[in-house]
Amino acid sequence: MLLEAFPGKKRRGISLTPLIDVVFILLLFFMLSSDFMHWRQISLSSANETESKPDSIQLIRIESDTGELSHEGKRYALQDLAGLSALIASDPKAVYAVEAVPGVKTQTLVSVLDQLHKAGADKVSMTGVLP
Amino acid sequence: MNFTGQEIPRKDNGDDQLIPLINIVFLMLIFFMVAGQISEQDAQFIAPPESISETPTDADAPRVLIDADEVLWLNDQQITLEELEAPLVKAFEQAGDPESFSIAVKADGQVPVETLQAVMRSIKAAGFRRITLLTQPSGEAS
């Protein structure tokens, strides 16, 4: 009866299967409900406009979806940051109202707004929202 | 008298082989718990426009969603441009801080600007001045 001499060796540890079940369910839950997108926002209507009346409104028109801009007959390219900076430096206090021809996509509009901000414009708005 | 020597290791082997699996699953679990944020899912998947903006979003703002097919959604309900005013006014009345109440527009990057402007005109006609557009940081932003 040496077989029974060490009963401790026969003891089995806790079964891992229920643990794995629970961990898998938790994993699935977190994988499906997690959101890795970091949302940011841009203001489309400058809320401060009502407080101080802008001196002037400069109209910038998006001519095509590829990013051609025009301002008082002069044409600018979206990537032409130096040209846009020069335009804005001539009247930095003005509200820059952006309007677009039909067919321009939201992404292009957002890129134009970004580019104007980079070029130094403080107040950028869409014409549809001007007071 | 070596009978026991063959029985016991075979029983243990079943769980022993699972330990690497459990390690990986635990690591993934911890990653998703720590790195992900649990948030409400949108009614429609949209690809938001990319922007350099770093302004964090206002969590309390009602979100008007415009999907790539130019369909409007508010609180997971499909809605038309004409019906938009009433629920927004209701949300404004229930807002804790009316001063900073804003309305967030979540539009797909491929939505034409006319559609976006029509929605904004409609929101503005309802009397709301603060309108924001939700974006995501661009990958190649410097």
Would you mind describing this structure in some detail?
The complex is a heterodimer of chains A (131) and B (142). Chain A has a domain at 49-129: 2-Layer Sandwich (Nucleotidyltransferase, domain 5), CATH 3.30.420. Chain A contains three helices and seven strands. Chain A has helices spanning 17-33, 81-89, 106-118; strands at 34-35, 40-43, 57-62, 68-71, 74-77, 95-100, 123-126. Chain A has a five-stranded mixed beta sheet, covered by helices on one side. In chain A, a hairpin with a 5-residue loop joins strand 3 (57-62) and strand 4 (68-71). Chain A is rod-shaped, with a radius of gyration of 31 Å. Chain A starts with 16 loop residues before the first helix and ends in a 5-residue tail after the last strand. The mean pLDDT of chain A is 76. In chain B, strands 2-7-6-3-4-5 form a six-stranded mixed beta sheet, covered by helices on one side. Helix content of chain B is 38%, strand content 18%. Chain B contains four helices and seven strands. By secondary structure, chain B is of the alpha/beta class. In chain B, strand 4 and strand 5 form a beta hairpin. The chains are: A alpha/beta (131), B alpha/beta (142). Chains A and B meet through helix 1, strand 1, strand 2 and helix 3 of A and helix 1, helix 2, strand 1, strand 2 and strand 6 of B. Strand 1 (34-35) of chain A pairs antiparallel with strand 1 (37-38) of chain B.
Write the layout of secondary structure elements.
The complex is a heterodimer of chains A (131) and B (142).
Chain A: H1 17-33, E1 34-35, E2 40-43, E3 57-62, E4 68-71, E5 74-77, H2 81-89, E6 95-100, H3 106-118, E7 123-126
Parallel strand pairs in A: 3-6, 6-7
Antiparallel strand pairs in A: 3-4, 4-5
Chain B: H1 3-16, H2 19-35, E1 37-38, E2 50-51, E3 63-66, E4 72-74, E5 77-79, H3 85-94, E6 103-107, H4 113-125, E7 131-137
Parallel strand pairs in B: 2-7, 3-6, 6-7
Antiparallel strand pairs in B: 3-4, 4-5
